[in-house]
């Protein structure tokens, strides 16, 4: 059984050059993929104490493994077959915060045809590069502001309550910091979902690994998103505001010089790794104008340069490659 992946996605930049566009802009018109999203966020809320005996068995059958995943890992109500489960579920469904989240989701997402179109195009690209892999079933739900995206064998689940819009009053009421709210918008669902899917298909055990290994692994995930969305703006892929994105472009060389000069690339110190990889309002070792996760951005640029210089390397080969030292060396990455 494939490992379950739970993502709190804040989000994950620099424009393609012509050669990059040519490599990733492929013809997928002949690939037969059509993503249809099943909306547990709507169906679950039809359950009442009066109809639960008939509706719950239908939901268990219709949603299968995702229903179990949702209950065990996302809203943590436990086994849907437990005799007390209907009571737990009603407490969840009638919780005032969940009710407000449901109303907000209904308002922002009356229809998911646009998202279905985006994911259809993305998974056409996925089948182009990975013809032997299966396209997962896609589900949406309300998680109570827990995981943004969950993945398991053949399953891709999306929590719509984490994508209501950066300015949504609900998020301010929850006192979520601005850098998190910036990426809790509908436009981030598709890139977040595909990055999450890449992570589930190509997981890495990086505990105790060097910072540069984390950077390049994250760069591989971002390059995967490049390939799935060759026309998408980099700011959406990485989840940076325009000013933060521009700062990275202007200071790429300075950031790299700092990491090299302070011998941080080969640090295995956990807090150092988190400092450059995890979400934050900015990277404190640089300036307050910098974004968080600058290590992810730099790793992305390393992988992009590696793939430009080594055109014989396929996307599948890249994703399977765990020789991070070789990727760094063969990239020739050394920004001014």
UniProtKB/TrEMBL annotation:
Keyword vocabulary terms for this entry: Lipoprotein
Record's protein name: Gliding motility lipoprotein GldB
Taxonomic placement: Bacteria, Pseudomonadati, Bacteroidota, Bacteroidia, Marinilabiliales
């Amino acid at each position: 059984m494939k490992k379950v992946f739970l993502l709190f996605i804040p989000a994950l930049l620099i424009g393609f050059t012509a050669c990059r566009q040519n490599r990733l802009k492929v013809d997928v018109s002949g690939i037969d993929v059509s993503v249809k999203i099943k909306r547990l966020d709507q169906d679950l809320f039809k359950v009442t104490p009066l109809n639960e005996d008939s509706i719950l068995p239908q939901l268990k059958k219709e949603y299968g493994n995702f229903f179990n995943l949702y209950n065990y890992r996302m809203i943590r109500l436990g086994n849907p077959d437990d005799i007390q489960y209907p009571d737990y579920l009603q407490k969840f469904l009638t919780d005032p915060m969940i009710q407000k989240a449901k109303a907000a989701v209904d308002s922002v997402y009356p229809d998911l045809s646009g998202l279905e179109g985006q994911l259809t195009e993305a998974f056409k690209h996925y089948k182009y590069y990975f013809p032997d892999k299966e396209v997962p079933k896609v589900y949406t739900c309300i998680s109570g502001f827990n995981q943004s995206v969950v993945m398991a064998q053949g399953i891709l689940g999306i929590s719509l309550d984490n994508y209501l819009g950066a300015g949504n009053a609900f998020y301010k009421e929850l006192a979520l910091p601005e850098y998190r709210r910036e990426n809790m918008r509908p436009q981030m669902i598709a890139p977040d979902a595909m990055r999450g899917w890449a992570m589930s298909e190509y997981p890495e055990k990086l505990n105790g690994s060097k910072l540069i290994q984390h950077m390049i692994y994250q760069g591989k995930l971002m390059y995967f998103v490049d390939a799935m969305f060759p026309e998408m703006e980099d700011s959406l892929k990485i989840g940076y505001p325009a000013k933060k994105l521009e700062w990275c472009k202007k200071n790429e060389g300075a950031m790299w010089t700092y990491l090299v000069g302070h011998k941080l690339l080969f640090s295995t110190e956990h807090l150092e790794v988190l400092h450059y990889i995890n979400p934050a309002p900015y990277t404190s070792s640089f300036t307050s104008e910098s974004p968080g996760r600058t290590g992810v951005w730099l790793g992305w640029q390393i992988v992009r340069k590696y793939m430009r210089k080594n055109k014989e390397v396929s996307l599948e080969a890249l994703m399977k490659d765990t020789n991070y030292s070789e990727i760094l060396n063969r990239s020739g990455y050394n920004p001014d």
